[in-house]
Amino acid sequence: MSGELRVLGACPLDCPDTCSWVVTVQDGRAVKMRGNPDHPFTRGALCVKVNRYLEHTAAEDRVLYPLRRTGRKGEGRFERISWEEALNEISTRLTEIVETYGGEAIWPYQGTGTLGYIQGETGEAGRRFWNVLGASRHDMNICSRAGSIGLKYTQGTSAGMDPEDFASARLILLWGTNTLTSGHHLWKFIQEGRAAGAHVVAIDPIRTRTADQADEHLPIRPGTDAALALGLLHVVVSEGAEDREYIANHTFGWDEFHAEILKYPPTRVAEITGLPEESIVALGRRLAHTRPTAIRATMGLQRNAGGGTAMRTIACIPGVTGDWRYPGGGLSYSTSAHFPLKIDSRDDLLPHPVRTLTMTRLADGLEDTENPVKCLWVYAANPMGSTSDQNRIRRGLLREDLFTVVMEQFPTDTADYADIVLPATMQIEHADLHTGYGHLYLTWNEPAVEPLGECLSTTETFRRLARHMGMTEPSLYDSDLELAEQLLSSGHPALAGITLDRLRKEGWVRLNHPRPFQPFADGFPTPSGKLEFASQQAESDGLDRVAGYVPSRSNRQDHDRRGGRRGGRKPYPLTLITPASHNFLNTIFGNNPELRRRSKNPRVLISAEDAERRGLVDGQPVRVFNEHGEFQAEAEISDRVRPGVAACEKGRWLKFTQGGANPNAVVEEGDADMGRGPLYHDNRIEIAPLA
Ligand SMILES: Nc1nc2c(c(=O)[nH]1)N[C@H]1C(S)=C(S)[C@@H](COP(=O)(O)OP(=O)(O)OC[C@H]3O[C@@H](n4cnc5c(=O)[nH]c(N)nc54)[C@H](O)[C@@H]3O)O[C@H]1N2
Ligand SMILES: Nc1nc2c(c(=O)[nH]1)N[C@H]1C(S)=C(S)[C@@H](COP(=O)(O)OP(=O)(O)OC[C@H]3O[C@@H](n4cnc5c(=O)[nH]c(N)nc54)[C@H](O)[C@@H]3O)O[C@H]1N2
Ligand code: SF4
Ligand SMILES: [Mo]
């Protein structure tokens, strides 16, 4: 066919798999997108969401031109303006704000819409520009921070196993992770292990589609995972199956941790976790006698007030069993930290030291009157839909004195509050470099087509704005390809031989790690060089010295409740979990007609026992509420959730949802035990019929 081109790209979404894709371009138009069959991890498949990416790119509601607000904040009424007008207005307002309040009055609120290192997430896009202005720093802790910190205490890094090595495991624990929904390509490797005899256990308060497919499901009470880890180790130790040689030579703090384990006999753990004692003992025995055991524990596990500690303690398991010795043994959370890219955000450009604002504390930040935020600059984020304490965020965004700029592809609930909306390119329209958090491949995304309308990439938007504001710092004008070269220039052996040319030609390249990959064969990057059951660092950070169990907020409230009312107020009775939805990616695709149709109305899962107590019938419209707010859903009476637990998926757009709210209306803006991580799965609520 004449004029047909095949362009290699990468899925930019916040998903562990970072699929490699092939876009077919005819006469300058993208006509087909398929998973790249040559990619060893993703092997040609995308997912139900991204199968619609081309359709999404061409969607009618795409933002194609700069917009200026004409209606009231939140109404979503805008007029089209030129880029020149937009840049004029923005530079005037930014200059005024910096002169009157200082650069720190600007909050560059960057989200996870793309994980690209050039256009998004951890990349340079914007950071150098904000440094020149002296804007506040933005701590992007919304997703995985608590768990990463917990892992660092034990292993020295959040990186662990190569997920491909799950094929060699003989016991696989899927712990607080919904593989078939939130990163399904790992499943093939799990199935390979299974074909060779591996037993697969899902540990999840919800019987998810992943739990359905596992050999065994432990419906644990939310936020009690560290207690389960200690209970399983209690059984391992009782069986005399701890790996004494490994413990002696490769771990630190065993005596103290051993004493902690002994406090958690299965009977006590059954009480804490709500699991039958027999199940705990049976799994403990399996763990004691099955090598290698691979643990996949992801972000779902750490979205509660004990979540960092849970990861820290679960990571102790392979230290006791010695699993890190064996290919296919150990733990996998995120592979991000295996990618040694060189990030140079040029902090030397800052005119003065600046404060850091915390992504999980947007509502607080917008309420601060002492050091007020005067400009909120939102890019690749949709906080109205994705962030805790929706009602307070809305109040913040309604502030008349707040200048809000939103760089977006779509008219999101957040964009409705913008003073200026800037049209953003989508992945087939810009270049980017990607790592992955569920595998070890670097992937290059070559632009396949010209941007629609007047959309600009993030980097190009900041280059134009810098020029418009007369900034002279040369590094603000580095091209996307120059930025990519810089990222690849760390000189780390894992990148040896991986050049931009090669990436552009081949699409993806595996890091130079052996296969199988035993990341801690030469020791752990902790202060002692060993796996640390006890951590000096944790102690000096004000945490327990020894890994243990910290109950989630919901569990603490349960304990408080048993002991009487808390501050005279009865806590709300049910714990709400708000996990990943199958058809949306956070709030991305929340406006896609077909995916919305498939997702039907929002549903809140509730056990028959809890439904009966409230007189609820299946399918009944209900309100889910607590002191922070409420959202509406249909009750789904289901044995997928245990009594005491309710669940409703994240990701709905408020404007398409009955009642104009999603589960984040009842999520408190509180902190996990580490890194101020969010509490998405740790909120008490009540459910009642909708009047
Ligand atoms: N389809 C789809 N895929 C996605 C996303 C999406 O929105 N949709 N989001 C992406 C993003 S941003 C991320 S961070 C990842 C997240 O992916 P996951 O880590 O899988 O995160 P969640 O879906 O939040 O939670 C996973 C499971 O943990 C369970 N869980 C909740 N609390 C607890 C607990 O206390 N203990 C235990 N044992 N389990 C618990 C939940 O019931 C849920 O089934 O997925 C990514 N992939
Ligand atoms: N209740 C509940 N809430 C949650 C979670 C939960 O488990 N429960 N999970 C949390 C997690 S894990 C995460 S990571 C956060 C995510 O929260 P956010 O970071 O706010 O991500 P999204 O809601 O996906 O919004 C991303 C936006 O970026 C836009 N976008 C995509 N690509 C680009 C680009 O290249 N340029 C620009 N300018 N824009 C782009 C998309 O159109 C989309 O509107 O949500 C959190 N929210
Ligand atoms: S969302 Fe995940 S599974 Fe789907 S295409 Fe992107 S990387 Fe692949
Ligand atoms: Mo995330």
Automatic annotation (TrEMBL):
Gene3D superfamilies (UniProt xref): 2.40.40.20, 3.40.50.740, ADC-like domains, Dimethylsulfoxide Reductase, domain 2, Formate dehydrogenase/DMSO reductase
Region described as Disordered: spans on this chain: 533-575
Molecular function GO labels: iron-sulfur cluster binding; metal ion binding; molybdopterin cofactor binding; oxidoreductase activity
Domain 4Fe-4S Mo/W bis-MGD-type: 4-61
Coiled coil feature spans: none
Stored InterPro entries: Asp_de-COase-like_dom_sf, MoPterin_dinucl-bd_dom, Mopterin_OxRdtase, Mopterin_OxRdtase_4Fe-4S_dom, Prok_Mopterin_Oxidored, YoaE_C
Pfam families: Molybdop_Fe4S4 (PF04879), Molybdopterin (PF00384), Molydop_binding (PF01568)
Domain of life: Bacteria
Keywords associated with the record: Iron, Iron-sulfur, Metal-binding
PANTHER family: OXIDOREDUCTASE YYAE-RELATED, TRIMETHYLAMINE-N-OXIDE REDUCTASE
Family per record: Belongs to the prokaryotic molybdopterin-containing oxidoreductase family.
Protein name: Anaerobic selenocysteine-containing dehydrogenase
Originating organism: Sinosporangium album
